[in-house]
Design a protein that fits this description.
Number of strands: 6
Radius of gyration: 22 Å
Length: about 200
């Protein structure tokens, strides 16, 4: 092969790595991309340390074999990135997460074309205390249903008060349900609960 390109290298296992070594030219035509902070496949025997060993072995100086650090994030607003960085600086270390979360690992805002109307927005954290006595009326609900109710209530409030920038007109308009996305770690655990609660809330 002239070039061998491997994406999500942080989730490579030992067998895959041996294959890459075997079919590349001693690694000289191997181009790998990854982020150890996103490693999620240990249950498939992924070995993030393979990524970290390679990460540590290359210099960022211009050469035929070098490391290129991609710091800029073009998917998120600055407020989201600042919030994530604040959390990660506090909890990520070589012992937890296998990476020292420093300036080299941080996320930097690159999407300069995002509108300026979002300057007043701040990320918020909704915490559910299942043992809170104020939630006694929901004691027959599952944890997933309780979370879904909390989110449905927040969405209803946002729908009444929040405005967003319309992609086509560039003007502010009232929030629509279609502007909102809910990301779950797994649909298997909470998907049905969320669908039922959100439909019940209209």
């Amino acid at each position: 092969y002239r070039y061998l390109l491997v994406d999500e290298y942080q989730d490579t296992n030992e067998v895959q790595n041996r294959i890459f070594d075997a079919i590349s030219c001693k690694g000289e035509n191997l181009f790998t991309v990854g982020d150890v902070k996103q490693s999620i496949y240990r249950f498939r025997l992924a070995r993030p340390e393979l990524f970290m060993d390679k990460y540590a072995s290359f210099s960022t100086e211009e050469s035929l074999q070098q490391r290129i650090d991609l710091h800029m994030n073009f998917r998120s607003r600055a407020q989201v990135l600042d919030f994530c960085n604040d959390i990660f600086y506090k909890i990520m270390s070589p012992d937890l997460g296998r990476v020292a979360y420093d300036r080299d690992a941080a996320l930097y805002y690159g999407a300069k074309n995002y509108d300026e109307n979002a300057k007043g927005f701040k990320p918020e954290l909704l915490l559910l205390d299942e043992k809170d006595e104020l939630l006694s009326e929901t004691k027959n609900l599952t944890k997933g249903q309780m979370e879904a109710h909390m989110i449905a209530t927040r969405i209803a409030d946002m729908k009444q008060h929040m405005q967003v920038t319309d992609k086509e007109s560039g003007q502010l308009r009232p929030l629509r349900y279609s502007d909102i996305v809910i990301l779950l770690r797994s649909l298997k655990d909470y998907g049905t609960d969320f669908v039922q609660v959100l439909q019940g809330a209209g």
